[in-house]
Protein: Iron-sulfur cluster carrier protein
Organism: Absicoccus porci
Amino acid sequence: MSCEGCPNAGNCNKDASTCGVETNPKNHIKDVVAVMSGKGGVGKSTMTVLLAKSLAAQGKKVGIMDADITGPSIPRLMGVEDQHAYGTKENEILPVVVDDIKLMSLNFMVENESEPVIWRGPIVGNVVKQFYTDVLWEDLDVLLIDMPPGTGDVALTIMQSLPLKGVVMVSTPQPMVSMIVEKAIHMCEKMDIPVLGLIENMAYLECPNCHEHIDFYNKEELDTFLKKVKVPCYGMLPQVDLLRDINMYSQSYTLEQQEKTMDLMKEIAQRMCDDLQ
């Protein structure tokens, strides 16, 4: 762990290498990866769900921790917004399981998903820690953390307290978004957390007739940005209904259409796995 950015840096007796949150001894999590952007509305949660589904399809044991405490969206994206999490007599929290993917979100703990969470930063940070320590994740190959926007309390808590193996950044082609994503990348650098790669979401439009790729912005701007931040691009995804409506797969899309979406993520997930080795 790194002391940089901690308000108690230099004023405590803890060893930086041991300053972190200890998970439940029943949990055995191989890799913890955060999905981050710094900017809202770029599809972080969608990418988290698609990565989880792709990894699970490869036979890996996967979990998703929804760290966006005040704006959780994982339950709805996974089609389980009406479910709730429950505890055991040992005060452990049982995750909701969908398609063999273990999930934890604050929306599993409120009566109504639209009920607001009006908490200050320290409380939010402690809940994030509890999602790691108190949830019975058991054996996982990868725990994906769906990060909230920004570089504030939650991001700092996760980077300082949890054993992150790396971060996957999500961006969109707009120059304004790239600037905010760059801030998040620099935060990871300061915290000594490796940025594994970047997913460019909503990068282009695919013509439904001729399948031509129509770019929204100058592709050279992305190349310049990637060279500047020295982060590899894991993949570029189109703006299509198949990615937008992942919570409605079983109701609205055929198996062939679902497989088309997963094919878009297969290489991205594999590249992430290779970098985690």
